C-alpha cells in the first residue's frame, strides 16, 4: 500500500512540474526575457527538487538531487551504459532518420497519418506540414546525404564552438532535464506507482510513462509545435537508462549525445 508521504511527494512533483512550465510559458509572453527565463528554467531544474525535499535528505540522495548539491555523483558505470546505448541505438536511428525524410520529402506522408490526424484537433493544425515543407526545401532528394556537413555552431571560433555545444548541451540541457524529470519527477511517481514489470533488466512502469509524457508536453511550452511531442519516445529510453544504470549520468550523457547527433543529421541532410 502506498504511504501518505509517497503520495504527497508524487503530487508535489507533478504540481511543481506543471507550475514550472506554466511560469516558463507566461514569462515567454514578456518581451526581452528569453535568456532570463531560459536560465531560470535550468536553475529550477537543478535546485527546485532539492529545495522541495529539503527536510528529507535521504530522499534527496535516493533521487540523486542532493543533499550535497544538485549534481549527481559521478559513475564510470553510467558512462559505460551511455556509450553502450549510443552504440546500440544510434545506427538504426540514423538509417530510420534518412528513410523517414526520404519518404516525407518526396511527398509521401502516410507514415505521419496518425500524427497529422491528431494535430487537426489541436490549435496547431497544419503546423507539422508547414514545418516539414520548409525543412524539405533543403533536402537533396535522395536517401543518402550528399555530404557530411558540420553544424555552423560547431565550427565557430576555430572549432571551439563544438566544445561549447558539448558543455552547454550537457550541463544546461541534458543533465538539468534528467535531474528534474528522471531524478525527481519519475522517482517520486515511482513511489506512488511502483513498477511491476522488468524490461531488459530494468524496473519500468507507469511512472516512466507519466514522467515521459510530462517531459514531452513541457517541450511544447518552448515551441508550440506538435512534432515536439515525439520527445516522449527518447524520454522512455532515458527512463530505462536511469533505472538500468542506477545513476543519472547515464541518461544525461546519452541525452546530450542524441541531441548532438540530431544536430549533425539535420546539418548533413538539409542544406541551409
From TrEMBL:
Signal peptide start and end residues: none
A Pfam family of this chain: Rce1-like
Membrane-traversing stretches: 12-30, 81-101, 154-176, 197-217, 223-242, 249-270
Keyword Protein biosynthesis: no
UniProt keyword annotation of Secreted present: no
Swiss-Prot/TrEMBL keywords: Hydrolase, Membrane, Protease, Transmembrane, Transmembrane helix
GO molecular function: endopeptidase activity
Record-annotated CAAX prenyl protease 2/Lysostaphin resistance protein A-like domain positions: 162-261
GO biological process, one term: CAAX-box protein maturation
Superkingdom, taxonomy of origin: Bacteria
Residue stretches in coiled coil: none
Protein name: MrtZ family glutamic-type intramembrane protease
Organism: Nannocystis pusilla
